[in-house]
Amino acid sequence: MATHRIGIMTGGGDAPGLNAVIRAVVKYAVGELHWQVVGIEDAFNGLLEHPRRLQDLTPKSCKGLLPQGGTILGTTNKGDPFAWPDGNGGVRDRSAELAEAIREEGLEGIISIGGDGSQAIGWRLMQEQGVPIVGVPKTIDNDLAATDFTFGFWSAVEVATEALDRLHTTADAHDRVMLLEVMGRTAGWIALYAGVAGGADVITLPEIDYDPERICAKIQQRKDRGRNFTLIVVAEGSTPATGEALPSARRHGRGHIVAGGAAQTLAQHITERLHVETRVTVLGHLQRGGSPVPFDRVLATRFGVRAVELIEQGRWGRMVRLRDGMITDVPLAEVARDPRIVSLDHPLFDAARKVGIEFGAAL
Amino acid sequence: MATHRIGIMTGGGDAPGLNAVIRAVVKYAVGELHWQVVGIEDAFNGLLEHPRRLQDLTPKSCKGLLPQGGTILGTTNKGDPFAWPDGNGGVRDRSAELAEAIREEGLEGIISIGGDGSQAIGWRLMQEQGVPIVGVPKTIDNDLAATDFTFGFWSAVEVATEALDRLHTTADAHDRVMLLEVMGRTAGWIALYAGVAGGADVITLPEIDYDPERICAKIQQRKDRGRNFTLIVVAEGSTPATGEALPSARRHGRGHIVAGGAAQTLAQHITERLHVETRVTVLGHLQRGGSPVPFDRVLATRFGVRAVELIEQGRWGRMVRLRDGMITDVPLAEVARDPRIVSLDHPLFDAARKVGIEFGAAL
Amino acid sequence: MATHRIGIMTGGGDAPGLNAVIRAVVKYAVGELHWQVVGIEDAFNGLLEHPRRLQDLTPKSCKGLLPQGGTILGTTNKGDPFAWPDGNGGVRDRSAELAEAIREEGLEGIISIGGDGSQAIGWRLMQEQGVPIVGVPKTIDNDLAATDFTFGFWSAVEVATEALDRLHTTADAHDRVMLLEVMGRTAGWIALYAGVAGGADVITLPEIDYDPERICAKIQQRKDRGRNFTLIVVAEGSTPATGEALPSARRHGRGHIVAGGAAQTLAQHITERLHVETRVTVLGHLQRGGSPVPFDRVLATRFGVRAVELIEQGRWGRMVRLRDGMITDVPLAEVARDPRIVSLDHPLFDAARKVGIEFGAAL
Amino acid sequence: MATHRIGIMTGGGDAPGLNAVIRAVVKYAVGELHWQVVGIEDAFNGLLEHPRRLQDLTPKSCKGLLPQGGTILGTTNKGDPFAWPDGNGGVRDRSAELAEAIREEGLEGIISIGGDGSQAIGWRLMQEQGVPIVGVPKTIDNDLAATDFTFGFWSAVEVATEALDRLHTTADAHDRVMLLEVMGRTAGWIALYAGVAGGADVITLPEIDYDPERICAKIQQRKDRGRNFTLIVVAEGSTPATGEALPSARRHGRGHIVAGGAAQTLAQHITERLHVETRVTVLGHLQRGGSPVPFDRVLATRFGVRAVELIEQGRWGRMVRLRDGMITDVPLAEVARDPRIVSLDHPLFDAARKVGIEFGAAL
Q1: Contacts of D281 in chain C (CB under 8 A)
Q2: Is C332 within a domain?
């Protein structure tokens, strides 16, 4: 059995299950195969900074890691080695330097856990600098076309669903319209799944501009049938179809969407139109934090094992994925950058409408 | 054993444990003492509307009620019988009508579960209209001076604490400042208890105008010591001490505080001052919803039993309460309307400072 | 749009998600299609007893049902209409009587939510008595070959995984061997999934007779590496390979496995052999109870909608199922009665071994 | 400000909140007062073994510790320094050696977190060997007379209450008698509080020998009123009053109570007498594991701060405690070794009976 020495890193936004992937890689590669695994801190930054920030990972250093949220390696959205900030407002290419650092550390290749951006960087590193990469997909929004599900998604859905359960009891006691803003700037998967799981009456998605009047009509129709409350799930990226510009209150600073902006916009419309009380909850990063649900832990563990198997087989340049219930893999080159969004013919979208959920549009 | 026929109602905002009080009253009064208990819907509205909305309550109708959030009787903040909206923008006194309805329904008296407002109405009803009342205190903010704790408070603290646990892992992964806005317009108990229980670095309270600079200094100090994230709990009623008027974005419609306004105000200051990323979560009504924690279920059960005992003993005009770990009672006349707020010499406030929590003020 | 009047029932052991199926059927069939849906209580018993026990189901009667465990219709393992207890220790065929009752109630057909036993009865009823049936699969053990997953399974896995998380912290503090007995008499899926998700060191399955010596060796090996605790998941149907008869203590009454018997058997062996302290937890029906996780709620909702769609299309005699991530359906005649068990070449079993989990056998 | 160097240790069984005490001590003593705090591993064993096992504790080493179950210092029931196993089946006094080690390490005194046994050892160490001790009470059973509540108790009650919630839904679906065995060998506080919080129908306590016939009568009475299920909480130390010896199956090995023995004994009686199905769940160490509830985190934090305050004030020889809602302290000499048990005149016991809970005895 050949011995290998590989690096592992996490890039982009965090998602519950990152630590479970790291643990599985270490448990299998180090614990069973007796390889060496080196953790690189804060994506590639740990290799490009001086001094380098690296950790030798062993089964012992992974104790208690499986249920833990976040990532022990840290992560960042900043630090594309091909476009590294040069401090003068511009960028420069540090990819050759990075490849050199990887060789200096004796790393045969890298397991890169990250979203489509990270995977694209990995593929480019492999092509242009000859750095062997195996990818593990990560996106809490579940918007990567290459994989059916990624770890973290069902954990986020659980947070949002529990929130709906809580809001349901208090909405019912009070005759109120409750709005829950969830993550999803371009893809509304969390809103759709949590809305179905939590019994929402209305869901707004980034994929469908909603007509506030249809939503008000739904609230009124429920009232007419003796239901004095309505639960609305609002994806943070959803917008009204009325053509009005985004309220300025929704954006501030460096272009971030203001927490609660999308929900507040709709709440204001409802209050003005129907004179009912509305209440807004904004989950924000609660959806990223905390312990992964068992589904995500199992998936993350299987992704980690498969990543090591790919290296065992010398099959660098591929990304593991889940397809039709099976763990398989796909060439990194084929990992599309177009996000997978909710389509009108998705079966769950259809089922959601059949149990009476309103999406704010004639479809 | 004399037989009694009593009414029960819930008024004001809901809190986890309302159903547990109702259940305990019914289990003891109906199940053991063979009295009759009538549930009045939506506070006194159920008696003042035509037709009246009342429910005969039996142990069977309380099946599964103990863990259930909300209130099966419904509740409302509207409908003071002494100042009932007359439909023309004014109010009229319907208290005599209410007393008449209570007599017509054969109710010997009422168990009124509610906050200081409800208790004051109850006491006035008893004095002016001769309606016997026993009070059960309810305030999710724990700001009633007459009782050490009420049910619902620890449930709200648990929701906020779990949120901090979740934010902790993701903040740690990302080097971010996370702000969690919790309930508390005039009293900051939830912020204080949850902040201590969830390991917050900074807490802002309605009782202490905060200096944003001190908070930025705390963030910077943590950074200097290698802690790249900071967790901040923001009570919704807390405001900066800088003398600046409340940002207009914080208020809208009928004077409601905008969800997230207080957190957003502080977040904006931090972003502008320190150029760090901030993220805001707004719990809102999540804190009212869901199943009560065991502490609240036990307390609610004991309150319900004690309320019936007071009626057994003919001691109308009193409110049950928790004092120094014991269930006792207090004259309704003495239930102060001044909310109990966090004082600088409260032992938990002192302990919080000793474990290093910053309150944004030199104290 | 033709109007239909259909019955719905739940049979066999309960599983989280039964109410979510019922709700989805009612929401779609009654709320959207304006059919009539009649709930039959306690499987077919509600039609065979006098008076019959039936409920008209409407969207209103499904309020709050989605997150609720159990089944509002009740369920039972007793009452095969083809072999009904005659009270004298024998059985008699009441299937014609049942078919007659279904016709008398004006039911066009029945949605039968149940395990392989219920589905076989349904198929026989259709063939022999002409009662149209659509099946919805239910098995908390996930051992139905016809479907990849059923609702309730991931909820059970979550209960077991949370238990492992808890045991982990206390085992670690105390240098102990902790055994967790989970459901699974013939199929060890819950043990396998929860063991992987909860970081078990050892899993015993009904499918693999375990050698207690191998398990003791694993405990010892961990000790040698400085890990003074070991977490073991024991499926209730797992047995040692030593050829010894089952300890008499494991069985009592009418052939039930005694709660904790399998774990106690292994614990005793470990204590005697290694002189270490062991502690046993027996989850029992905790695994069936409580609110379904979002995965199960979504799956149950989709199953319910699909069952109604089958009836819309006149496709009686089929069972809905999940295959490769898609909701499809299969002829009731083909629903095999052989349970799907864990095979040695199942990918998760392989992954489990690769992260170092011991199954007590040389494989 | 004088500088101090103190030790801290955890002894006896673990309880959720131990880490929160350690964290509060370190945050205040090191972070604010700039003392030194040394963690001693596995109670006093870390000082008596060679090499010694000690940890310098800093705020940084306490990162993420607040919500964490178990104890980072480890704990053990073995190792009384006054009666240390000599390896030949006897014991010898190593207390002088321990005092010497404490002096060698430059420790001014020790914060000892433990139960009545640990506190008695601490007091003896102080008297006989001049080792300054401050005690922090710990007992998951809440049976220490000196304090109203200790951390860990409400966390255990929450685990047991959630279990009852789960069992309720499945019991209801199935017409069954469910038995939940909880901790409590001599004191039944967990059974009492969880039974009230979880809506048990029957509770058995170690303090009251139960008459199985009364419990069967309760089950039958519920059946007669249309309630086909019964929830029973069984404290592990409870026994029938029938005078029969404990079934041999309940004890094994070194005198441990067999997990589930108490519940199984009662279940068997019910099955034989009423011919109903029973199901047993045994929580075992689940009650010790996992994250402390907010109540316990706040209490543990306040205990930790107060322990440091006592040392600041030079008040060695005392134990912190909660009395009537206030954190106070008591001389170690007065910490009684008699456990506080449930008395028939305890107010919660009275309230439990008034909501209809049966304790298996005419009282």
Answers
A1: 259, 282-286
A2: no
Q: Are residues A255 and A298 in the same domain?
A: no
When divided into structural domains, chain B yields a total of 2
Q: Where are the alpha helices (DSSP H) in chain A?
A: 18-26, 45-48, 95-104, 116-129, 153-174, 189-197, 212-224, 261-274, 294-312, 347-354
C174, two tokens:
């105390």
Query: Residues D303-314: pLDDT tens digits?
Result: 999 999 999 999
Q: Are residues A275 and A186 located together in one domain of the fold?
A: yes
Does residue A359 sit within a domain? no
Task: Assess D66–B contact: CB distance below 8 Å, yes or no.
Answer: yes
CATH code of the domain covering residue D271: 3.40.50.460
Could you tell me if C105 and C241 lie in one domain? Answer: no
C-beta atoms of C173 and D14 within 8 A: yes
Dist CA C68 CA C289 (whole Å): 9
Looking at the fold, whether B143 and B9 belong to one and the same domain comes out as: yes
Clarify whether residues D87 and D110 are in a common domain.
yes
Task: Map tokens 């108490």 to a residue.
Answer: D262
- At B257, the pLDDT band (50, 70, 90 cuts) reads low
* Alpha carbon C358 to chain centroid, angstroms: 25
User: Is the previous residue joined to B132 through a cis bond, with omega within 30 degrees of 0?
Assistant: no
Q: Which helix (H) or strand (E) holds D69?
A: none
**More confidently predicted of C152 and D250:** C152
Say if residue C140 is in the same domain as residue C199.
no
Q: Which residue has the tokens 């004030």?
A: D313
Q: In angstroms, what separates the C-alpha of D262 from chain C's closest C-alpha?
A: 12
Residues of A with Cβ-Cβ distance to C199 under 8 angstroms: 66-67
**3-state DSSP percent of chain D in helix, strand and coil, to 5:** 40, 20, 40
Say if residue A50 is in the same domain as residue A123. yes
* Identity of the residue in D75, D76, D167 whose CB atom sits nearest the CB atom of C289: D167
Averaged pLDDT for residues D185-190:
96
Cα-based torsion angle of the residue sequence D62, D67, D68, D69 in order, rounded to the nearest 10 degrees = 130
| Nearest CA-CA distance, residue A360 and chain C, Å | 17
Do C245 and C198 have their domain in common? yes
Residues 6+ apart with CB under 8 A from B2: none
Considering only the beta carbons, identify the residue of A59, A199, A297 that sits closest to C197. A297
- C189-213 b/e (C-beta count within 10 Å ≥ 16 → b): bbbbbbbbbbbbbbbbbbbbebbbe
d(CA D163, CA D171): 12
pTM for the model stands at 0.95
pLDDT digits (tens, 9 = 90+) for A98-123: 999 999 999 999 999 999 999 999 99
C-beta atoms of D28 and B355 within 8 A: yes
Residue carrying the six token digits 């009593």: B6
What CATH number does the domain containing B72 carry?
3.40.50.450
8 Å CB contact between C109 and C132: yes
Distance from CA of B343 to the nearest CA of A (A): 29
Closest CA to C163 of C140, C180, C183, C188: C180
Residue B339 is given by DSSP the state: P
User: What is the complex's ipTM, to 2 decimals?
Assistant: 0.94
> Is C131 inside a domain boundary?
yes
Residue A147 lies in a domain: yes
Give yes or no for D353 touching C (CB within 8 A).
no
Domain region containing B14:
5-151+292-323
Strand order in the sheet with B326-331: B54-57, B36-40, B5-10, B110-114, B133-137, B318-323, B326-331
List of chain A residues whose C-beta atoms are within 8 Å of the C-beta of residue B271: 253
Q: How many CB atoms lie within 10 A of CB D90?
A: 9
Please tell me if residue C258 touches chain D, with a CB cutoff of 8 Å.
yes
Closest CA to A112 of A233, A214, A208, A25: A25
Residue type, A56: D
- Provide the 10 A C-beta neighbour count for residue C91: 13
